[in-house]
Each structure stands twice: as C-alpha cells, then as structure tokens.
Amino acid sequence: MRVGIATGLVVVGDLLGEGTAREQAVIGETPNLAARLQGLAEPNTVVIADNTRRMLGSLFDYRDLGTLPIAGIDYPVHVWRVLGASLVGSRFEALRVASTPLIGREEEVALLTRRWERAKAGDGSVVLIVGEPGIGKSRIAQTMLEQLGNEPHTRLRFFCSPHHQHSALYPSIAQLEQAAGFRREDTAETRLDKLVTVLALASKELSEAVPLLADLLSIPTGDRYPPLNLTPQKRKEKTLHVQVAQVEGLAARQPLLMLWEDIHWSDPTTLESLDLLIDRAATLRVLMILTFRPEFTPP
C-alpha cells in the first residue's frame, strides 16, 4: 500500500460511468498532487505535502523528504513521510501552533489558582469544567499549567478518546507510555526498564505495581518479577489500587496536578479509577481538574 495526501480545493464534477460503477469526477490540483505523491511513496508508507503537514501539527512524527519537483505541478513541493503517531498527549497540544490569549475567563482561572494553593497545603480538590465543545475548556486548563511555570510540582495528564471508549483504562495506558517515553523501536526489556523508572518516582516497593502495570501495557516481565496468579476481577481491583498508590506517592513528594480531559469519553474502568482517586483527593496534595461536555453526568 502506498498513500499520498494533499489538502486544498477539490471540485466535484459530473457523474461518470454507469450503474453501480457510477461515481462523481473529482478534479483540481489537490487530487492531482495526491496522486503524484502516491507515486513517490515507498510500499506501506504515507507521504504528505507541506500544507497537510502544517494542518496535522504534531499529531504525528515525520521525516523531511525535502523539496521535490512534481510532474504536473508547476512549483516544487515540500514533501514529508509520516512515521507514526507522536507522543504528544492531546489533540489540543498537537494542533496548537502558538499560545492564543485567553479572554474573559479570569474568574475560572482564579478559582483554579486558589484551589491549587489549598492543594499545596494538603487540602486537595477536584474541579469540574463542563461546557459545550469549543468554549475553551482545554485552554483554561492549559493556562493553569502555564501559570505554574517552574514552580515545583508534578503533573499528570490524561486524555480520553472517542475511539477508545471500550478500551479499559486507555487514558492511563497512554499516560504511562508517554511518561515513560516509549519509542516504537524499544525492545520489551527497554520498555520494562522505562516503566520501572517512572513507577519508582512514587514508590520503591514495586513488586506488585510493576507486574500489574506491565501487564496493563502488554510488557512481558520475564524472570524479573514473579507472575501474579489472580482472577481477572482481582487483577482489576489490584491494578486500580496500585494506580491510587502511585498518586499518593507522587503527592507525598511534591504537589500534584492531575488533568483529565474529555471524561465523557471514559471507559467504565477509568470511571471506577476516577471514583477511587476522587475519594482520596481531599487528604492529598493534589488538584484534579476534569473536563467534560454537558451531556455527561458524573457518577
């Protein structure tokens, strides 16, 4: 398979063909460029033009193929090969080219700042930001992160996805992979080493945490950690409690800011995890910020 992608103006013309083969003609520079890029792509790769690259932002990792002359196009085209999804946690981060000013949300940001000061003193809080798509829920949370600057703290960011609502603990898996800095070329042993390094930030007792969370991330532990013979239900319960213990350990070291975005797309197991975390938040140095749409009712 070879794929070439270009973005721009597309004109849909008259119907061509007969019967079930009938389709609309697509004309213009964009389909022509896409077809030419497809010819440049090696098998099982995706090649895109520079305008598509700018629209995608940091959603993917790319290899710069340089500026090439393209047959049928009267100007050289900057071409990129798509290598795979990037480690950027959120679509908001990936597509944000530059920070835009936040206007008219001073009260909301001030509330978050007050709650953060209380959390640093050990009075943890959970703040819900609810609103329709596009009103700036993510931008409010991002402003809070920017205000912290170099202030000593730990931050954990979780992003729920509409494509993973039936994948148990998907936000936690993605967060761990990003925090550990997993790369596609990492061996299983390397991934296990990286996972241990991240978990050790919260606790030195990892005999249970590592095999449980390694299993969650589909990382074999080999002979380094003995297998845990648990029923599926008991494994889930212990995994959720290990996650809570990790949060407790991090918050004991320094104030912890947890951002959960779009929890209306959470899977049921993630909601169970959130229930446990919220129950503990009041006694920890933690501020949890949860964003969601109005149609979602927090349990």
Describe the structure.
The protein is of the alpha/beta class and about 300 residues long. It has two domains: about 1-85, Alpha-Beta Plaits, CATH 3.30.70.1230; about 105-290, Rossmann fold (3-Layer(aba) Sandwich), CATH 3.40.50. It contains ten helices and ten strands. The chain has helices at about 30-40, 50-55, 90-95, 105-120, 135-150, 170-180, 190-200, 210-215, 230-255, 270-280, and strands at about 1-5, 10-15, 25, 45-50, 60-70, 75-85, 125-130, 155-160, 255-260, 285-290. The strands form three sheets. The chain has a four-stranded mixed sheet with strand order 1-4-6-5. The protein starts with a strand and ends in a 7-residue tail after the last strand. Mean pLDDT is about 85; it is low at about 10-15 and about 95-100.
What attributes does this structure have?
Alpha-Beta Plaits; 2 domains; 299 residues; 21% strand; globular; alpha/beta; four-stranded mixed sheet; 39% helix; single chain; Rossmann fold
For the record, the count of structural domains works out to 2
Number of helices: 10
Q: CATH class of the largest domain, anyone? A: Alpha Beta
| Spatial extent as radius of gyration | 23 Å
**Residue ranges: pLDDT <50 for 5 or more in a row?**
9-16, 94-98
Binned, the helix content reads 25-40%
Helices and strands: which structural class? alpha/beta
Strand order of the largest sheet: 1-4-6-5
Content of β-strand: 15-25%
CATH topology of the largest domain: Rossmann fold
